[in-house]
Known about the structure:
With about 260 residues, the chain is of the alpha/beta class. Helices cover about 40% and strands about 20% of the residues.
Amino acid sequence: MRVLVTGGSGSLGSEVLAELGARGHEARPASRRTGVDLSTGVGLAEVVAGVDAVIHCATATQSPRRVDVDGTGRLVAELARQPSPPHLVYVSIVGCDRSPFPYYRAKTEVEQRLARWGGPATVVRATQFHPFAAAVAQLLMVGRVAFSIGDMAVQPADTAWVAGHLVDVATGPVPRGFTRTTDLAGPDVLAMGEVAMMLRQHAGQGSPRVVRVPPVGGVLRSFSDRVNVPSGDVETGGRSFAAWLETQPQRLPSLRR
Ligand SMILES: NC(=O)c1ccc[n+]([C@@H]2O[C@H](COP(=O)([O-])OP(=O)(O)OC[C@H]3O[C@@H](n4cnc5c(N)ncnc54)[C@H](OP(=O)(O)O)[C@@H]3O)[C@@H](O)[C@H]2O)c1
């Protein structure tokens, strides 16, 4: 199959490209690096022509309205112009509809837009990927103090495992209209203090001192309520956070600028 991968240069997109290649499919990456800009529509018509499916991984956490919401609108308009609209597979986030976090609101809006489209579209929600969970835990650490915002936790997933699922969906049966799969998550639920402990041990440091701070405001309250941890039907699998961490350098990249 010929599969378009938006955000093919990103963490998830690059794993999707590798998986498609390993399974013998023709993968077509699309992002600004390949001359396709979802925020303007430049290059979209050319890259969409003739594809059988789209795995939509492009995102911009700092400008989700321009890229995720309006950009998906541009992508869908282009797909609708094709003689037979290809199956669009969209990766979203577990619990995005249960938090006022602006990025999550944008993800929810994209899901709703796809539901209204009427063409073949599948939403696959996943939990935080291992590198992101590690980066958030690092952000919440100052020296050996690890701050835990209320009961915040993660159930992080292996990026390659999620990529494999997206490829299964994109190369499988095409739905008649909109559908959503079972949510995807990694095998373990970890409180942020536990993540901090694992990171410090990995770095050869002593145990952190976990300081619990109350969640202030709707966004932090929603994460303290663990909206990002699946509560209903969920498919778990892939490498655990501990197994992923073993493959990482002692000093992990940080989200702190
Ligand atoms: N990271 C997580 O923990 C996690 C968990 C669950 C779900 N997800 C979802 O998975 C998807 C991929 O996330 P990720 O972590 O792989 O993101 P990422 O590493 O930040 O990659 C984002 C991609 O989007 C592309 N992009 C940005 N602006 C663009 C634009 N204007 N036009 C076209 N492409 C653009 C970037 O490439 P260029 O710079 O070349 O444009 C890059 O390839 C997102 O939808 C995210 O919400 C992520």
